[in-house]
Amino acid sequence: MAECKPAKTPMHLTCILEKEEVSQKVCQKLYRDPRESHLTTVKRILRYLKGTPNMGLMYEKTSKYRLSVYCDADYAGDRMERKSTSGNYQLLGKNLISWASKRQSTIALSTAEAEYISASLCTTQMLWMKNQLEDLQIFESNIRIFCDNTTAICLSKNPILHSRAKHIEIKHHFIRDYVQKGIVTLKFIDTDHQWADIFTKPLAEDRFSFILKNLNIQNCPE
Questions:
Q1: Considering the entire predicted model, what is its pTM?
Q2: What's domain 58-217's architecture?
Q3: Computed from CA positions of residues 64, 153, 90, 71, in that sequence, does the dihedral angle turn out positive or negative?
Q4: Pairing of strands 55-57, 217-219
Q5: Closest of 132, 154, 158 to residue 143, by C-alpha
Q6: Nearest to residue 197, comparing CAs of 110, 206, 150, 81?
Q7: What confidence tens digit (pLDDT) does each residue in 145-169 have?
Q8: Are the C-beta atoms of residues 188 and 90 closer than 8 Å to each other?
């Protein structure tokens, strides 16, 4: 791969990794039953790394330490199990300090449910970060979580379980308690400015580069 052609993104926009639906193997894990598509995908990642040896995360000096959280979900992105992927990141001021991408353990019945679960999952990380900042004498009275789904935001504010939410696992509803206490506030952000997209699915080159720039990931001086 030393002489390979660099790639602009680590994954092709239409990349799909699957295993055979019918298999006699005892272990169904993809990494124990690799196929040509997986090799092609790994090569794409290596090609991306080839073209970005100096890419790094830049931190700006600032006196503003407000914590902000952005969360998103790729609804039913798993073609086999139809599970969604949660993605989120946290900013301290304008600096990226934490990020995560994780497949949800349950199948969401709607985009709103997937986004609601994603917001709940990132709240746990946010509370841990809040405690760490308090040890450094940085106190946050209200932390904003930005979400691009208005229905998910309404679910976080409504203590009554109706048809859209009564089937959701109880553990995901704890976000409502923190919203009512005023510790967390869910705010709407339009999709164009929801940069957590990068943690949920492959993106087109223009969108991928735009998000990297806004997350302050750029070529570092040698």
A1: 0.84
A2: 2-Layer Sandwich (3.30)
A3: negative
A4: antiparallel
A5: 132
A6: 206
A7: 999 999 999 989 876 656 667 778 8
A8: no
